[in-house]
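This part of the workshop introduces the protein records we will be handling. To make this concrete, we reproduce a full record directly below.
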Amino acid sequence: MSITVLDTYSAMKQILLAPVTKRADLLRSMLEANRSMYRHHPGELDLVAVHLQSSGFPIDRDEERCLDALETLAAAGAWERMQRALDDALAVLLEATPGLEAPDITVLFVLGDPADKHFMGPCLGLTGFGGISGNIAITFWPFPENMERLEATAVHELNHNLRWSPGGVVWDPMTVTVGEHIVGEGLADAFARQLYGDELGPARIGVPHLHDDELFAKVLTGLDVTGMHNFTAWVHGDPGAEHLGVAPVGLPMGAGYAAGNRLVDTYLAATGQTAAQALHADASEIIATTLRHG
């Protein structure tokens, strides 16, 4: 089992410096390494379109701004830091979960779009996706707060990848609940906190709501909701729901992350486990334990 953080620095620099007419093909070539992330998607997929729809850096404007951000990342050793963090985190998870099996993992780390108001605003310049076994994608803007949390961000996504890998917890799109997603975010944050502490570990979007009892109680009412189109509203809150054009439920950005942290922390305290040991813990058991001790 190995983790490869792709050298997207060189590829992105080449794209941003190329003539505009050549950028789409160069971008497509860079994204190809992570195509298997979309293996469950029906039909043919245009990776460039997916990139642009997912707040990825633009290929027809803002070149200087993006090149400056790219150099900020390079000067901070972002790719090397991410590789080290993921290798170290994998060792911790392997030790905590004997017999853990997972495929090799490819990590695509790309700049976000500085003109995307949802990405730069409510998302705080960061989105990650690690739920498809073998692939991690992180879209990033080098705000100082994000740079500090670079390692924590990477290991959060690794936790998702190994929780929902073959042999781990099954994510069945037909039956999966909001509770599974929220517990998954809580476990990933708890693992990042185990490695990097309470200041840097939690996902930034959930931090303002960690101690909001009223919000926590409201999220609990949605844990049995199914239908993945409903998840954004409960996990990312109204700004995420409105961005995707789905019905909001009256929650702030990151509400599900905050609730997930509370659910998981109660479970870990009750069982004496570390977050790493709880990698494959059953979401319904985590929720039930919290409700018993709540």
Remarks:
- The chain has a mean pLDDT of 95.
- DSSP finds 14 helices and four strands in the chain.
- Residues 178-200 form the longest helix (23 residues).
